[in-house]
Amino acid sequence: MDLTRKQEAVLGFVSEGVREVGRVPSIREIARHFRVNIRAVQDHLSALERKGFLKRKAGVARGLELAEKLFQIPIVGRVTAGGPALAIEDVQGYLPMGLKLKPGHYFALRVRGDSMIGAGILEGDFVIVRREPTADPGDIVVALVEREESTVKRFQLYHGEPSLEAANPAYSPIRRRPFEIIGKVIEVRRKYS
Fold this sequence. Notes:
Blueprint: H1 5-20, H2 27-34, H3 38-50, E1 54-56, E2 64-66, E3 72-80, E4 85-86, E5 93-96, E6 106-112, E7 126-131, E8 140-145, E9 149-158, E10 161-165, E11 179-189
Parallel strand pairs: 3-6
Antiparallel strand pairs: 1-2, 3-5, 4-9, 6-7, 7-11, 8-9, 8-11, 9-10
């Protein structure tokens, strides 16, 4: 479920308190920070609890906890770093994440191929993607080409037209084919065995 801007701000403040001070701020501290009354804070906290971002321990002062969903994101399949391949979204597991991520829609994909080696993205890596439909030139994105093939590439403008560029000279850019940006790559994660 989507959060309102105020809910995102409250959740960010609570997360920051846990990260920096080691505890959840009190309702009064939250109200003071946002310059609102306690009832407004309680309403935001209840909404965050309903949406699965916070949990409450009954009968405990400062009984709020960050929900586990803030600490992991789903791995939803593979993405090619080569020629586009058929996109299949299927949750295959979860990756743990830190509190640095703002609330939003994130997912991870395992990379297959070598078209992004020049950008430090290797076969077998996980790319962490923030779901959003737009990008700036130079951003590394996951895109859906012709509505069925997914790929990870650098978004560029070529003579004013959008294009997807590999970071390996062995691959041609994707131009004059319709594509849709699914999200921006915000992190690459690699496991050494």
